[in-house]
């Protein structure tokens, strides 16, 4: 099995944590630099992660998680868990857009429709997820909890949100630091 990704991507990190003790080769690419040709050869959507297993290529962390779960014969996620993933991905995709815009020299704090929409989505989803944490919905260390961990830790690493009012997300993150593969996959190490 081979996982193509990077050490800073929150989408790749969730798969690395999920793979746990599974033996696999990790291909760490700089997708905006010298690793871009390799990315072009492996995924026409030009995104990471990509998993290769027995000649089968799989794009997108969510589909990779489904593939691994089917392979292990695990129960599929419930519809409520799928909604949790959609919220986590919604906030994460918008935050990636903000970061790429900043890296492109755009001031994303401007009062522009596109950035207002991204900021609003990030905050509405994070507030809902924080309320879910308070209700005890992420107590079990399963795939949705791993994805939430990777999102919160990455947002803090990239300094992308104001945590006022959603501090329970940081408490959730702090309480899961000792879970397997969390320290080993910390993006600050790269
Ligand atoms: N829905 C995808 C999102 C993956 C994604 O956006 N990855 C980022 C890295 S954090 C990426 O490859 N971005 C490249 C780009 O947007 O050009 C997944 O869950 O795998």
TrEMBL record:
Domain GST N-terminal: 1-76
GO-annotated molecular function: transferase activity
This protein's UniProt keywords: Transferase
Protein name according to UniProt: Glutathione S-transferase
């Amino acid at each position: 099995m081979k996982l193509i990704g990077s050490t800073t991507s929150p989408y790749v990190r969730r798969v690395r944590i999920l793979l746990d003790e599974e033996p696999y080769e990790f291909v760490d690419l700089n997708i905006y630099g010298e690793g871009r040709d390799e990315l072009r050869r492996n995924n026409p959507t030009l995104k990471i992660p990509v998993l290769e297993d027995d000649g089968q290529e799989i794009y997108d962390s969510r589909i990779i998680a489904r593939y691994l779960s089917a392979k292990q014969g695990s129960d599929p996620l419930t519809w409520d868990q799928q909604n949790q993933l959609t919220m986590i991905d919604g906030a994460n995709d918008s935050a990636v857009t903000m970061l790429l815009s900043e890296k492109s020299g755009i001031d994303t704090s401007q009062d522009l429709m596109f950035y207002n929409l991204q900021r609003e989505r990030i905050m509405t989803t994070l507030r809902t997820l924080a309320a879910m944490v308070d209700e005890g919905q992420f107590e079990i260390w399963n795939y949705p909890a791993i994805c939430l961990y990777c999102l919160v830790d990455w947002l803090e690493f990239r300094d992308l949100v104001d945590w006022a009012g959603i501090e329970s997300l940081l408490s959730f993150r702090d309480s899961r630091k000792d879970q397997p593969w969390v320290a080993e996959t910390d993006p600050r190490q790269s």
